[in-house]
Prior knowledge:
By secondary structure, this protein is mostly helical. The protein folds into two domains: about 5-95, DNA polymerase, domain 1 (Orthogonal Bundle), CATH 1.10.150; about 120-300, hpI Integrase, Chain A (Orthogonal Bundle), CATH 1.10.443.10. The protein is built from twelve helices and three strands. The chain has a three-stranded antiparallel beta sheet. Strand 1 (about 165) and strand 2 (about 170-175) form a beta hairpin. It starts with 9 loop residues before the first helix and ends in a 9-residue tail after the last helix. About 25% of the residues are buried. Residues about 1-5 have low confidence and may be disordered.
Amino acid sequence: MHVKEKDIKQSTMQLLEEFKLYLEVERNLSLHTVNAYNTDLFNFLSWVGVRDPQDLNHKDIRVYLSDIQFKNYSKTTVSRKIAAIRTFYRYLYREKLIKANPADNIKSPRKIKNLPKFLTDNEVEQIFDTINTNSSFGYRDRVILELLYATGMRISELCNLDLADLNLEGQEITVFGKGSKERIVLINNRAKNFLVEYIDKVRPGLLLENMDNNALFINNTGFRLQQRSIRRSLADIVKSLQLPKKVSPHVFRHSFATRLLERGADLRVVQELLGHASISNTQIYTHVSTERLRQAYNKAHPRAKIDPN
């Protein structure tokens, strides 16, 4: 049964706020993930109503999950909602607010993994060449995309970069990934040259008095550049090119990994560079490479027709 927000107990809302703080501070999850989990849990706790979430059992959660099946959510959304509930109850168990975890053995629906979208070498160069590097912010945007493609780092990692994270002599950058895990990414000569030019000649002109002197990339007010600004700039570039595919900053990460594996890089090395906790997350790029080989073979060989199964 669905209830109104005013029917949720104040103690439950307080618990939700404490859990949100746990996600932000201890788990150091991205703002996007924290907000998504918070929304999912608010919906769940609204459904619970005046009952204490600590009093729920395994069956209650199953009934809720059965209820949301009628809302036509995608499998990805349902999986995220289940993950939010499981994380919430693990937190309650850790804090000794419950004696047993009712979310144990709640399984997510099996997701169909779509192959990551990536850019061809020609498409990457088209994007780079479209950027007006005569302007300070245009040059900054070119450096950003060069770095994303050269390193495979996440856009959140790039936005959080400080000048102190750079080792230009060693062509290394220290990034802090999910869960504040530190790793080293490498930059090629081209990206390094663009970056040096930006730091020496472009960035000083963007800084204003009493602004952020530590952030590597800054906006037109002198503060640290945000992800949405990069997404917006990239969207404008792609729109002007009329590329027949959706291009996001994450596509540069996919393109980086795909290109390395196509050129013979070891899967474990790519895993390390991407900051993947599990090798299974990296293995999907081998499927991308295999699929490209299959398509090329089917197109080139007069009698070829490989069954993907």
